[in-house]
Amino acid sequence: MPVTTLFSLFRSRGWGRQSEQQLDVLYLAGNTSTTAAVTPTSPYSALVVHLITFHRLLPGAWKVTVSQREVGVHTVQLSSDLADVSFWAWVDDQNPLLITVENRTDFPGFVGATLATINFDTLEQMQRIKSQASEEFGLSEGTLSPGPAQEQARRG
Amino acid sequence: MAILAVIRILTGGIKVAARSSGGETKIVHTDTAGRPVPVTTDRSGRVVD
């Protein structure tokens, strides 16, 4: 089976454990933004967040900014046909993933978010795999998406 | 100060610290059945594992 994504590469190698984490903004006042700093906690010590799917966007005027040291700042305007934010962030206690959601209406609203993650028991485990992935596939820091690694994985 | 945002997370796997523009954020931890889970925080409100 050909490897087509960096995520499937990790899965085929048995690197980390795949899971989804739910984060819901149950209430956000109109014309207000909130920023959530996400870090790993027990039973994990480090994780990769590679996709956030937003759902139940009510009302329909949300702006979301995802930022982290390595991925920089990534801003999207959410709408009914754009609810997936894809990137690749290595997250630990010292490098939180910041998710800012902004309600751009005058009315209170709520939004759900599902974070697709690859979890690691120890920080050392993630660092070792990160180093190996960088060496084999040229995964470089500062890139928003794992495009070059994906291309190499397809060819490889 | 008014609570302007309420964030709910499933306990286990990730922890969240949050702030809102101009007000406070309340964080609710639940188990997989949606039941509230008590969370221990330190004096500054950070979650203690």
Global Rg of chain B: 11 Å
**What overall form of chain A do the CA principal axes indicate?**
elongated
Helix content of chain A: 10-25%
| Fold-level CATH name of chain A | Jelly Rolls
User: Which whole number gives the mean pLDDT of chain A?
Assistant: 80
CATH architecture field of chain A: Sandwich
Description of the molecule:
The complex is a heterodimer of chains A (156) and B (49). Chain A is α+β, with helices and mostly antiparallel strands and 156 residues long. Chain A is 21% helix and 48% strand. Chain A has a 4-stranded antiparallel beta sheet. Chain A has a 4-stranded antiparallel beta sheet with strand order 2-7-4-5, with no helix packed on it. The N and C termini of chain A lie close together (12 Å). Mean pLDDT of chain A is 80; it is low at 141-156. Chain B has one domain (1-49). Chain B is mainly beta and 49 residues long. Chain B has a two-stranded parallel ribbon. The A-B interface holds A 19, 21-29, 32-44, 47, 96, 115, 117, 119 and B 2, 4-10, 12-23, 25, 28, 47, 49.
